[in-house]
Amino acid sequence: MAEYKIRDLEILSGIKAHTIRIWEKRYELFSPERTDTQIRTYTDDDLTRMINIAILNRCGFKISKIATMSNEEIHHHVLECNGKKSEDVAIERLIVALIEMDERLFRDTLSDLIETVGLTKTFTDKLIPFLDRIGIMWLVGTIDPAQEHFMSNLIRQKVISETDRLPIPEKNTVDALLFLPEHEQHEISLLFYNFMLRDKGLSTVYLGQSVPYDALSSCIERLKPQTMVTSWLTAVDDNFMQSYFKRLNYEFKSIPVLAGGIQINSRKDLVKDCIHEISDLPTQVGALIS
User: Fold this and answer.
1) How many domains does the chain have?
2) Which among 67, 82, 99, 266 is placed 20 to 30 Å from 252, CA to CA?
3) What is the reported pLDDT for 44?
4) Is the pLDDT reported for residue 172 higher than 80?
């Protein structure tokens, strides 16, 4: 069982720590344990309850009313609230699904969002803020590898499913070749890049995770893509990153490389002469191949 501080509850529920303390004192919503230094600590159940309370509060329930409800009643009203305002409380639903490893809730939430606003807005407006919110949980070790894989694979499946619905462009040329370098396993961003390009009618070849450089080189020579697209999330040595893109640029200087991910964003000065940093990918690719 994970252990949370009040700051964790604030970040994950969106309710200020000061407000949580007031609610706790006035309505006895929680009975947190305390450390030897009197720091409040909360459990998974406390966090789930806090998020559900936040959902009901956003849906118009007064905290004085919520305080009289049992956990079962709170859960019942949350389900009703989710049905009425699923987009407004989607991030909170995803966090609860992650904590409880509830596949049905996670998939239903994503499906409802995609049906309402489409995959692109779901990813940019909901999934990215969701991942930002739970970042603290990785930092303090309250998400274990099983939960991370659970969440990542469900998102991965959904992006692949939505991409599979799109027609394959009938083109003789490859507008974009998408790949991850040999050390990189995190492909959700790259899958989303592939979806965005296909959704705009651009032709792509998706190579995916951990592509050895020699295999990538052979593929480029064979397919002659108009652009290359990659994403770097895993930390690597500065010299490795710089030499990798310099080599790619030297060997295939006529093919623009578009790169994104936290490692590119945080160290773009190292590779700015070799890549185009991803901002609006479909527009960038369209401009480079026109």
Assistant:
1) 3
2) 266
3) 83
4) yes
pLDDT in tens, 223-281: 999 999 999 988 889 999 999 999 999 999 999 999 998 889 888 899 999 999 999 99
**Of 165, 188, 212, which marks where a domain is finished?**
165
Write out the DSSP string of 98-139.
Answer: HHHT-HHHHHHHHHHHHHHHHHHHIIIIIIHHHHHHTHHHHH
Q: How far apart are CA 226 and CA 206, in angstroms?
A: 14
Q: Kindly state the average pLDDT of the residues 112-132.
A: 90
Q: Are strands 257-260 and 227-231 parallel, antiparallel or unpaired?
A: parallel
Q: Is 178 helix (H, G, I), strand (E, B) or coil?
A: strand
Burial label for 190, CB within 10 Å (0-12, 13-18, 19+), is buried
Beta strands 33-34 and 40-41, pairing class: antiparallel
Q: So what's the pLDDT on residue 235?
A: 83
Specify the long-range contacts of residues 78-84, CB closer than 8 Å, at least 24 apart: 78/52, 81/55, 81/56, 82/55, 84/59
Picking from 265, 283, 270, the residue whose alpha carbon sits closest to that of residue 227 is 283
As a whole number, mean pLDDT of residues 18-42 equals: 85
Burial of residue 166 (CB within 10 Å: 0-12, 13-18, 19+) is: middle
Longest dimension (CA), the chain: 69
Domain that holds residue 134: 87-165
* Domain of residue 50, CATH code: 1.10.1660.10
- Model confidence at 34: pLDDT above 90: no
Task: Note whether 115 and 146 are same-domain residues.
Answer: yes
| 234 φ/ψ angles, rounded to the nearest 5 degrees | -80, 135
The two tokens of residue 112 are 């409802």
| Threshold 0.85, pTM exceeds | no
Phi, psi of 191 (to 5 degrees): -60, -40
